[in-house]
């Protein structure tokens, strides 16, 4: 991934937060037909020591778990909020007119070997953990045990667990850091007026970058 230094994000707690907030991943691997992309919700578990570990499951009929290279890596992409940024939002438009459209986004790329966990108990534990994460905050959170056991056991038998110990990961936060402060403030003001799904989330990311930038200048 091309990632200029101003957009690079390496803080583990920040990368972890995006994965937990946007767990639906694009898992890129090399299979029998060349490059393959599967879209799978993954749970970020604590691995041995400080190594992050991604856990999930796929349909038993999915060739991914059979074709995963034993000595190679897969690439897992987590897409955070994204938003079109109009040049008319920049304060400098009125001053110079030298502005163009762009796109703000935040993503995490994680790499590691794909390991198969064809174990019903492991799959159930993974389902329980991911469900608890996603149901957190609901008034009446649903739990795996709420469904009849024979029903869930039958479904668990139709999937296979996968685990990816992350050997390296990086984030790209393109959230207006390359713009002067006045433009960043005006981007926030216009994002707050939008009614698109990611407008509020992108506002949070731009504001966080403003806070981080001010902290760096103070230090």
Automatic annotation (TrEMBL):
Transmembrane portions of the chain: none
Pfam families linked: FMN_bind_2
UniProt-listed Gene3D superfamilies: Electron Transport, Fmn-binding Protein, Chain A
InterPro entries in UniProt: Split_barrel_FMN-bd, TR_PAI2-type
Record's protein name: FMN-binding negative transcriptional regulator
Organism: Acidithiobacillus ferrivorans SS3
């Amino acid at each position: 991934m091309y990632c200029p230094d101003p957009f690079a994000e390496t803080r583990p707690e920040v990368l972890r937060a995006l994965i937990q907030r946007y767990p639906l991943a694009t898992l890129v691997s090399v299979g029998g037909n060349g490059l393959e992309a599967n879209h799978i919700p993954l749970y970020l578990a604590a691995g041995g020591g400080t190594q992050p570990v991604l856990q999930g499951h796929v349909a038993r009929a999915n060739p991914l778990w059979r074709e995963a290279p034993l000595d190679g890596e897969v690439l897992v992409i987590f897409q955070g909020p994204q938003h079109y940024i109009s040049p008319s939002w920049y304060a400098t438009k009125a001053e110079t007119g030298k502005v163009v459209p762009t796109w703000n986004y935040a993503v995490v790329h994680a790499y590691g070997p794909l390991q198969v966990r064809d174990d019903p108990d492991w799959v159930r534990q993974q389902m329980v953990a991911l469900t608890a994460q996603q149901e957190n905050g609901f008034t009446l959170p649903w739990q795996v045990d709420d469904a009849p056991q024979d029903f869930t056991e039958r479904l668990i038998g139709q999937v296979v667990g996968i685990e990816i110990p992350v050997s390296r990961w990086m984030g790209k936060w393109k959230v207006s850091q390359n713009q002067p402060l006045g433009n960043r403030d005006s981007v926030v003001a216009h994002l707050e007026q939008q009614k698109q799904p990611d407008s509020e989330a992108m506002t949070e990311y731009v504001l966080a970058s403003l806070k981080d930038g001010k902290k760096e200048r103070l230090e």
